[in-house]
Design brief:
Number of strands: 13
Radius of gyration: 20 Å
Shape: globular
Strand content: 15-25%
Structural class: alpha/beta
Largest sheet: 7 strands, parallel
Number of domains: 2
Number of helices: 11
Distance between the termini: 38 Å
CATH architecture of the largest domain: 3-Layer(aba) Sandwich
Length: about 325
């Protein structure tokens, strides 16, 4: 099968490309000239890259006309919740206009293509304790520009199915982490900080007082999240598009929530350093979702998918990733 991934050079896109190659599919990827390529260094000779920008309708239409994929995974966009407060218009442009451009390209150039749109658990936003675990029918109350942009993407997918008959499947993935996650995200940022503190040469620089205890900077530690390893998540993405009903929405999650404090404690248990924890006000969001705990039963009944990589291994692999790079 011909499979096209928007955002192939990103965290999830690179893992998805590797997984699809293992299934012997023909993988194409949309990237921008300024995209960071290190995530796909090991597979760049096995995939076909197409230079295009989801915010440029002409380049996207040209890409779909050239490839005419059987399947498409739309992963490109602005993916950092905190940044959406700093750049709300850019977030809306990338995540909403970009999705319209992709859907229009499929509608006009390859209407038989099946497409998965990557929504987010951030669409649920403010969830009451009695509403957990969260099902797909829960009210949507997004609390960030990012969450609102993903809600629009979600509804666009349903609308293009109802109006034009496109085979669209929307996934509402809960938090997913692992190697290659950008250091602006909390789990990866904590792992990178630990890896840096473990380096004696770094600790001896003028910015670090050698006789002071190692210090780690954090934001809100009370929020609870449902974390899944990215390598399990990309398996779920493939199953969602292959088996999912067009026009449907599926939660993908582990079904267990940990607080950010518990995640941090797990990472700290993997180092011999005694690290002092300090809160940085700049790491706090204007509004934060207190609890995201998902119900994956609808997706499980369809595919029998379940996570195979433990929470602890996910964090250990992320920490080792940064240990190899700092």
């Amino acid at each position: 099968m011909k499979v096209l991934i928007t955002g192939i050079t990103g965290f999830v896109g690179s893992h998805l490309a590797e997984y699809l190659l293992s299934l012997n599919h023909e993988v194409y990827g949309i990237y921008r000239w300024r995209s960071r390529m290190e995530n796909i260094e090991g597979i760049v000779d096995d995939i076909t890259l197409i230079n295009a920008d989801i915010k440029d309708s002409h380049s996207i239409q040209k890409a779909f006309k050239e490839v005419k994929p059987d399947y498409c995974f739309h992963l490109a966009g602005q993916s950092f919740v905190k940044e959406s407060w700093n750049s709300p218009s850019e977030t809306m442009s990338a995540n909403i206009l970009g999705t319209v451009n992709v859907l229009e390209a499929i509608r006009t150039e390859c209407p038989g293509c099946k497409i998965m749109l990557a929504g987010s658990s951030e669409e649920y936003g403010l969830v009451k304790p009695e509403e957990t675990p969260i099902t797909e029918s829960n009210d949507l109350r997004p609390m960030s520009p990012y969450g609102i942009s993903k809600l629009a993407l979600d509804k666009l997918g349903v609308m293009y199915h109802m109006s034009y008959g496109l085979h669209t499947v929307v996934t509402r993935a809960f938090n997913h982490e692992g190697p290659r996650r950008g250091d602006v995200f909390v789990t990866s940022n904590f792992a990178k900080q630990i890896a840096l503190l473990e380096k004696p040469l770094w600790r001896g620089t003028p910015d670090y007082y050698h006789d002071a205890p190692p210090v780690m900077w954090v934001g809100n530690l009370e929020a609870k999240r449902d974390w899944t390893d990215v390598r399990d998540m990309v398996r779920a993405y493939w199953l969602a598009l292959f088996y999912g009903e067009p026009g449907e929405v599926y939660n993908i999650c582990r079904g267990t929530a940990w607080s950010v404090q518990e995640m941090l404690d797990t990472l700290l248990s993997m180092t011999s350093l005694e690290i002092e924890i300090k809160q940085d006000p700049n790491r706090l969001r204007p509004a934060d979702v207190p609890l995201l705990l998902g119900d994956c039963s609808k997706f499980w009944e369809l595919t029998h998918w379940y996570p195979t990589i433990s929470f602890e291994k996910m964090l250990k692999d992320m920490l080792d990733y940064w240990r190899e790079r700092v």
